[in-house]
Amino acid sequence: MLKGKRAYICSPLSAKTREERMFNMGLAKAYLDTVSQVFHCRTYASHAYLPLMLDDTIPEERKLALSIGKQLLDFCDVLIICGERISSGMEGEIRYAHDTGKEVYWLKGGRDPFQLRKIKNWKEIEYAVQIPENHISE
């Protein structure tokens, strides 16, 4: 299904503390490796590395990071949602992917690890949106 494709990894970065953001960055790196190995595709996630240079709590740096993420998403064939929650940044990426005709999948966990569920429209996942209390920008 994804063999040879370029997959954009969409997972939460936003968090209340720097330590939580660094943890989320580590999860993004793990998703990069796991999805690549399991589905034999190339994986990309700007939020796995950009937080080392750009501060998510500074609005203009967050805006730049989101812009870089969109450019990377344009380069990819599909978007894969990873994790149990959808942050506001992820919401923007998912909506953008749908608007630009990208295939969108959600990596399922729990009893059926490594199962991809195809997401046909935003309404299928709208209930999952969770925006952190101290979110800086929209």
TrEMBL record:
<protein>
    <recommendedName>
        <fullName>DUF7768 domain-containing protein</fullName>
    </recommendedName>
</protein>
<feature type="domain" description="DUF7768">
    <location>
        <begin position="6"/>
        <end position="104"/>
    </location>
</feature>
<dbReference type="InterPro" id="IPR056670">
    <property type="entry name" value="DUF7768"/>
</dbReference>
<dbReference type="Pfam" id="PF24963">
    <property type="entry name" value="DUF7768"/>
</dbReference>
